Every structure is written in C-alpha cells, then in structure tokens.
Amino acid sequence: MPPKRYLEAGQVVGTHGVCGELRVQPWCDSPAVLASLKTLYFDEGRTPVRVRSRPHKNVTLVKLEGVDTVQDAAALRGRVLYLDRQDLELPSGHYFIQDLIGLSVTDADTGKVYGSLKEVSPTGANDVYHVNTDRGEVLIPAIAEVIAEVDLEAGVMRIRPLKGLFDDEN
C-alpha cells in the first residue's frame, strides 16, 4: 500500500488576536516546520487552504486565507490540519512518524519478529518506539546502535536490541 500523501500536521486549539489567526498545536517536529508551509489542508487533504504562519512558543500561529474574524477562527477549533508530504523534504534516515506506525519490528540478525510499532514518543535526546509484543509493550530507543534498518516498502524495522530489552538478561 502506498504511503498516505496527506499527513496530520496539527490541530486548531484556539484563536490568537481579533483578525482570525489560529493557534495550532503542531504534530510535526516543531512549530517552525509547520510554519514553513504555505498550503495546509482540511478534510484529510481534500480542502486546500493558503496560509501564513509563524512559530509562537510551543504552537504555530496560522492565518488562513478567508478567515478574517475571531468568530470565523473560533468555529475551526478542534479541526485537524493536514500537510502534503511532497511539501517537506526529510533528511536521509528520517521518516514521517505516521509511516512508521504499524511496522513489524524484527531482529536484524536472526529475523525473529518481536512485534509491531504502535507509537513514537519524543524525549528530547532521541525518540522512543513503543513496540507491542506478545509479552506487552517494550520501549525501544530510536538510536543508531539499535535501529539497523527501516524498510517502509517491506513494512519492517530491523533492530539490534540492547541487552535485556527482550530477554531477562541483566
């Protein structure tokens, strides 16, 4: 299955000022990434809207074309905005989180299947991958020493787990 073209970018959490600006909680790497886009989308990518944006603390302030009053902006509270993956260029070795969710997590050396990736948590130093296993959830640090390969086409993340992650060793 090809990856989704339109990805969830953030949610309208409030208004800012009286001229129709929106406060958007970004679901991407930072408010600055969201602010770099000139077009966002509603309705899972079906409705494009031109935007002017700027980062502001932990949110992105977004001015949508055609939304000029605080009342118009308030009516959009709770709506999810989408981005077109073609509008962002990821550095080599970086992935959209939505593409990682659901990957099968296997041992890079033995092929043993540990489980599937269900969530990604940013921690500051590195992300943490939440893997559903037959023994419950296991947290995997997203570091080069552990993540051997990500193959989106095959739907697999190959890892070399740290000692003790999947066994009872100390």
Write a brief structural summary:
With 170 residues, the protein is mainly beta. The chain has helices spanning 31-35, 70-74, 97-100; strands at residues 6-16, 21-26, 39-42, 47-56, 59-64, 80-84, 104-107, 113-122, 127-133, 136-141, 147-151, 156-159. The protein has three helices and twelve strands.
Describe the structure.
A hairpin with a 2-residue loop joins strand 4 (47-56) and strand 5. The chain is 8% helix and 46% strand. By secondary structure, the chain is mainly beta. The N and C termini lie far apart (40 Å). It has a six-stranded antiparallel sheet with strand order 3-4-5-2-1-6. The mean pLDDT is 92.
Q: Whole-number radius of gyration?
A: 19 Å
Helix/strand order, N-terminal first: EEHEEEHEHEEEEEE
Percent of residues in beta strands = over 45%
> Order of strands in the sheet with the most strands?
3-4-5-2-1-6
Strand elements, count: 12
Instruction: Estimate the helix proportion, in percent.
Output: under 10%
Largest sheet: 6 strands, antiparallel
Span from first to last CA?
A: 40 Å
Q: Which segments are poorly predicted (pLDDT under 50) over 5 or more consecutive residues?
A: none
Keywords, separated by commas or semicolons:
single chain, 170 residues, mainly beta, 6-stranded antiparallel β-sheet, 12 strands, elongated
What is the secondary structure topology, with strand pairs?
Blueprint: E1 6-16, E2 21-26, H1 31-35, E3 39-42, E4 47-56, E5 59-64, H2 70-74, E6 80-84, H3 97-100, E7 104-107, E8 113-122, E9 127-133, E10 136-141, E11 147-151, E12 156-159
Parallel strand pairs: 7-12
Antiparallel strand pairs: 1-2, 1-6, 2-5, 3-4, 4-5, 7-8, 8-9, 9-10, 11-12
